[in-house]
Amino acid sequence: MSSADAESGVDAFSHLGETVRAALSDRGFSTPTEPQRRAIPPLASGRNTLVIAPTGTGKTETAMLPVFDAIVQHREREGSTEGFCALYITPLRALNRDMRQRLEWWGQRLGIEIDVRHGDTTQYQRQKQANNPPDVLVTTPETLQAMLSGSKLRVALSDVRHVVVDEVHELAASKRGAQLTVGLERLRLLSGSFQRIGLSATVGDPEAVAAFLTGSRVDELPESETDADRDFSIVEVDVGSRIEFTVTQPEITTADDRLAGKLATTEEIASHVRVIREIVETHESTLVFVNTRQTAEALGSRFKKLGDPIEVHHGSLSRDVRVDVEDRFKTGDLDALVCTSSMELGIDVGRVDHVVQYGSPREVARLLQRVGRAGHRHDQVSHGTIITSYPDDTLESLAIARRAGEGLVEPAGIHTGSLDVVANQIVGLVMDFGEVSARRAYQTVTRAKPFHDLTEDQFRAVVRELHSNRLCWLNEDADQLEKSGGTWQYYYANLSMIPDEESYEVHDMSSRTQVGTLDERFVINFAAPGEVFIQRGEMWRINDTDEEGSRVNVAPIEDPAGEVPSWVGQEIPVPAAVAQEVGKIRGIAGSQFEHGATASTVAADLCGRYPTNQSTLETALDPIERHVEAGFPMPTDQRLCIEARGRTVRVTAAFGHEINETLGRLLSALVGQQTGSSIGMSVDPYRISFEVPQGVNGGVFRDILQSTDPDHLESYLELALKNSETLKFTLAQVAAKFGSLKRYQGRNRFGGDRLLDALEGTPMYDEALREIFHRDLAVDATADVLSRLQSGELDLVLIGDETPIGTSSRPSGQELLVPEKADASVIEAIKTRIQNDRVLLCCCHCKDWNHTTKVRRIREQPECPDCGSTRVAALNPWADEVVSAVRADDKDGDQKKQTRRAYKAANLVQSHGKQAVIALAARGVGPHNAARIISKFREDEMEFYRDLLKQEREYARTQSFWD
User: Fold this and answer.
1) pLDDT tens, residue by residue, 901-915
2) Where does the record place the Helicase C-terminal domain (predicted)?
């Protein structure tokens, strides 16, 4: 540290009072960290401040030392306050526990009471906090919502002078954050102005996030409402320069052959496991980040199989399990944790000296957040290894690593104008005051930055909707909002803006402990008795499911392969800037190959620009080299290619998930409109694949791209979304937050079409569209792409065949799932599940009889009890419309295909009996595939079920084309 820095450090601590400085000395804080050097002076002066610095560099103390000092000095001058002095708000309950432990010493040393409050806080503790408020309360955004309406707590909250929001970037990008900003404005009505402090490890747009935190700036307020406490400072410690990355795709060795034998998996996966184990063995404490809970469970199960001291950590594990592995990792009993974003935030697990990112991190912010957890104490450099699996994965990771080194972080993507949040907070204001003027409610909401542009017309439309749903009353004569009979119940049922979705607790019957949770969709689709799945990195067999208690009872088993459970969660979208850099790499490498360069030469050149090795780059360049050798034009950041073969048309476009999703929806809607057929679509960051009717070629797609008016793109997309499950699903969630539906209980429990018809033209419909546009699509950026295509700034090339680049996409599903050669217990579980599935039997001869029953109860040769015919179709148990089509004997119209399919199924059952019923009961196995599977000669019945499993996997891989 230079003398100037030392002086700066002394100056930083000199802004604190004598009592706190003495505590600093006792704690061993001789010199401050860089965030403390730079942030304590503005914080000590009472200024709103956003502090951006790597995890573990003392951000918590940076924020709280000036707050503690203010509390101590106020107490020394005026005595103790009656209420809360400061709120420390975190997005996770686990962080609450961490913060309390981290702040406890300071509280004891300074005589400051610190407590925690969240959804699991006991009633006794809540009452105690209301009667005798602690000086500092650590809480969550949702608990703050509950506190704002309590009579005693409102008195306690009136003394708040400081609010710290931890991991503010996590909240800024969600509706939870939008709700919190209005909650802070409601708090301000109680307490007057207070200091706002935001903490984050990575932020791409600091000015926007700081404004999100502090509310409307002075120049944005009406003249009658000047407000000097809205200004802010930003203290940003460079993260990228303190982090080193290595990107590697492991080479397969002979050791991997042996490891693969132990794991019953492929040599490629074994190579990944081997490299991770080597990294773990050469470091003291390693975090292995993965992008999904499924991958965490699958990878964790491999380490369990090998007996490694490595555990799994993610949000669907029970709190006790998570706390246990955190503590064991912290004490050194575990060498590594395989974790998801649950460990991105600042949960204290002790010192981490290396981070592995398994697969592309998809975003710069995510990579910096994750790798920033390693080796950051005492200004050390953080080290991370990204392990990749295929060319797109490698090139994407290289682009992200380079951009991370330069600090090119994506914007937070702040939700603006969320109308369901407005509805929620209007009811909150009515709860606060009993009655409140509509004008005051509007001003309060719009002082929060996400709602600064909310119009009075939009606000009044929301109020009228709440009035019609009887959540509050609008007295139009007095322009007053008043409580109704439904106000209280609605508010406390909707403290959170996270959509209500059913989850099932998983309980181990042998130890009588909770293992974790499963989403309703997994339970419905896979959780039959006898089914085997992985959770906590261990194998479990389902004993039974308690539907009413939302509980799955399981028992542990020894089994190397089972179904990996799925949880609700979106794929992390790859930003346009990252995808564009991948396109640029393709262009550079392609040009070099065209001029005769070898893969070794091109790889050596790129190694000078990106943090990787020669072997990894040569593997990643293989599709590009083959593409050039075949003579195809190269898709780059400046060129789109349309390729077609058979019924597949593919647009290779390096624009990232959101632009490609937007282009895909536009093209599928307009091509479908022209052809009168449904167009299947699958999207990744570098290509959009379509399944088209016979006779549709790439020229149709080219013409649409060249002729669609960019100015009308939003209108086209709205029309395209009207029949989509996405809109119906989102609309149901939004309607629940408006109180128009009972609390959301699963996608199959409401009539999506009827809901759409009923709510079109309401604020709920507008909000559902807004959310989809914000969450999934990029309208403005896509309109710009169309403009550049039509002006000739971007090339558009039509290719009459599939290409190496077009077909080298990211594998569907996780490469660590069930091994291709599933063992006997898995096949037995598949057999049990199918035998217990229900099918609808329908007579295609007399057309009068139909009956739903389990497969295992069906005779070897099913026949109609009415007419005795064996021409019986086996259908999905909900296929009532097919039965109607058969009875009507439709030969044309929309039901023609259904009738034909039923007759094909009946012919198959007539020829092959129960075996055909079993095949037709498997997921995604229609009459054509069932006939092909049945026709194969086998000596073993298990091989028949193995073939059904293979077809089910193929259906899961291509399902997006058919849904």
Assistant:
1) 888 899 999 989 999
2) 274-420
